[in-house]
Amino acid sequence: MGTRGTTMHGVVGGLVASLLLLVAAPAMAESPAEQISSFRLKHGEVRVVRDATLDRIAMDQARAMAAKDDLSHDALGPFNRRVAPAGAGRAAENIAYGYDNFEKTLGQWIDSSGHRKNLLLHNASRVGIASAKNASGKRTYWAMVIAGDYEPKGKKKNKDKEPLVAVKRETAPASKPKSSGCHVKLLSLCI
Fold first, then answer.
1. Would strands 185-186 and 189-190 be described as parallel, antiparallel, or unpaired?
2. Mind listing the pLDDT tens digit for each residue in 49-98?
3. Do 61 and 75 form a contact (C-beta atoms < 8 A)?
4. What is the pTM of this model?
5. Where is this region: Disordered (predicted)?
6. DSSP structure string for the chain
7. How far apart are CA 60 and CA 76, in angstroms?
8. Residue 49: beta bridge partners?
9. Cβ within 8 Å of residue 174, ≥6 positions away
């Protein structure tokens, strides 16, 4: 075989080897939203997609925790105030620090009952995920905000359609009331 044949044989062999490596290489790692969705689907909940508003809320929280080097849901203020721009009826937040990658952080949340409950928030459809390093660069803080769909502006909730009724029940039997002249007591009115 001549030089040209040997070179051609080497090129073909290199191409075959490259193709084999591509086929055998593991698939690209799933995105954080895909990892969360996979977990949710295994537990009967729907898939979530990344949401820019929730990503910003999560990033603000992660940066605030990193700046203070403090793992706290209140690092930037109360959650209900911070999540208000998301326009969601239901939302939850998970925070963590310590792992440099999301897969390990997600595993930590799955192993914690409260965090797991947030990951499985019923009817959630959107998620925001962010991380930030503290000043030394040695600690990574994570924040995840998961929420339902945006609620239409100006739409009143069903709670306005029917009156709210509260019933107070006594735990101990009431003692016999003194004679007060009431024949019937209805809604704290004496008749």
1. antiparallel
2. 999 999 999 999 999 999 999 999 999 999 999 999 999 889 999 999 98
3. yes
4. 0.66
5. 152-180
6. --HHHHHHHHHHHHHHHHHHHHHHSPPPPPPHHHHHHHHHHHTT----EE-HHHHHHHHHHHHHHHHHT---TTBTB-HHHHSGGG-BSSEEEEEEES-SSHHHHHHHHHTSHHHHHHHT-TT--EEEEEEEE-TTS--EEEEEEEE-PBPPTTPPPGGGTS--------SSPPPPPPP-S-S-EETTEE-
7. 8
8. 126
9. none
Kindly tell me the sign of the dihedral angle through the C-alpha atoms of 52, 56, 61, 66: positive
Structure tokens at 51: 């949401």
Q: 């090129």: which residue's tokens?
A: 11
Using a 10 angstrom Cβ sphere, with 0-12 exposed, 13-18 middle and 19 or more buried, the burial of residue 56 is middle
**What's the token pair of residue 181?**
């002249």
Residue in the block written with tokens 């039997």: 173
